Amino acid sequence: MARTTYIIKCQDACAAIQTAEKILREEKYDYIQENGQSVWKNGNAAWAAVRYIRLIPVDHATLHIEGWVKGTVGGEMNLDGIFGGLPKKMAAKVIQRIRTAIEG
What we know:
This protein is an alpha+beta fold.
């Protein structure tokens, strides 16, 4: 899996997830089950790569956020690099918004 992972230290991982989920809903992400994982998905790959964000609580004060894009051809791509640039930037912007809201 080619995913970009962010490790966020927080006061309360449950509260951090609630904050992140609120932002993801505002950004029009849908909560789905895909390949046995609960993920947030935005897009349908008709015109641009689909953006994914996954929230993983590690312990009471640590949250991992994974971000990646997936086009109609090929598999997952992390948020680095220029191929699939616009969808990657859009996903990274949402993750940065989440990080700012959680970390302050």
